Amino acid sequence: MGSYAGVVEDEPIWRIVLADDHSMVRTGLRALLEADPRCHVVGECGNLSRLAGEVDGAKPDLVVLDISLGRENGLDAVPALLALASPPRILVLTMHDDPAFAREALGRGAHGYLLKEAAAAELIRAIELVMAGGTYLQPQLGAQLARHAPTPAERLSERERDVLRLLARGHTNAEIAHELFISLRTVEAHRAGLRARLGVHHRSELVDEARRLGLLG
């Protein structure tokens, strides 16, 4: 890590919880982070079921979160962590180098995404940026995401996809409202939003988009 002799005493101390299912990884991360006097590890967790409780009790400023927590997906914890009375910042630290994971993590509300192969200094830089209120994405993944930016259709929410699927199958607005347990006005709003976002004006075009997204089976 190198020396942190230049860090002044009044710089912030970041309270950190480590969420990783490998105890040796947590031990290594704790040693690495606490070599920086700004970092103080206040808790560890190795499974998803205990994570929200651990964070709620420890009240950390930051959670360093792995995606793979045993057989569970660590990203499933992000919404619950952000809903806590004192929500932490969240930095995903993982071996998954597929940019789709990075897109999902940031889409769910994580504040940073870094690969475990990164140098220790890069981890500290990521924490600095995240704790300053920014978002950190490992540069190589950022470049890949820029080359493969999702289309407007690929950015549709699950509810929008449901409405699009039923529209493409010929259902009326009233039938869609009944099927999805939503109001007729909500269906009409979704329908107008789909036309605007997808740039389509005819039902045949909606059918084409639904088929392209694999919504018609």
Give a written overview of the molecule:
The structure is a single chain. By secondary structure, the chain is an alpha/beta fold. The chain has 2 domains: 14-147, Response regulator (Rossmann fold, 3-Layer(aba) Sandwich), CATH 3.40.50; 153-212, Orthogonal Bundle (Arc Repressor Mutant, subunit A). Helices cover 47% and strands 15% of the residues. It contains 10 helices and 8 strands. It has helices at 23-34, 48-58, 78-82, 99-108, 120-131, 139-147, 158-168, 173-180, 184-198, 203-212, and strands spanning 14-19, 39-45, 62-65, 68-69, 72-73, 89-94, 112-115, 136-137. Strands 2-1-3-6-7-8 form a 6-stranded parallel beta sheet, sandwiched between helices. Strands 4-5 form a two-stranded antiparallel sheet. Helix 7 crosses helix 9. The longest helix has 15 residues, at 184-198. The chain is elongated, with a radius of gyration of 22 Å. The relative contact order is 0.09. Mean pLDDT is 86; it is low at 1-8. Keywords: DNA-binding, Phosphoprotein. Residues 149-214 form the HTH luxR-type domain.
Report strand %: 15-25%
Q: Report the top-level CATH class of the largest domain.
A: Alpha Beta
Average predicted local confidence, pLDDT:
86
Tell me the structural class: alpha/beta
How much helicity do the residues have? 40-55%
Order of helices and strands: EHEHEEEHEHEHEHHHHH
Largest sheet: 6 strands, parallel
Please name the fourth-level CATH homologous superfamily of the largest domain.
Answer: Response regulator
What is the second-level CATH architecture of the largest domain?
3-Layer(aba) Sandwich
The shape, in one word, is elongated
Q: Tell me the span between the first and last alpha carbons.
A: 52 Å
Number of separate helices: 10
Strand tally is: 8
Over all CA atoms, what is the radius of gyration? 22 Å
**CATH fold assignment of the largest domain:** Rossmann fold
Widest sheet: strand order? Answer: 2-1-3-6-7-8
State the low-pLDDT regions, or none.
Answer: 1-8
Modified residues (4-aspartylphosphate): 66
Domain Response regulatory: 15-131
Keywords: DNA-binding, Phosphoprotein
Domain HTH luxR-type: 149-214
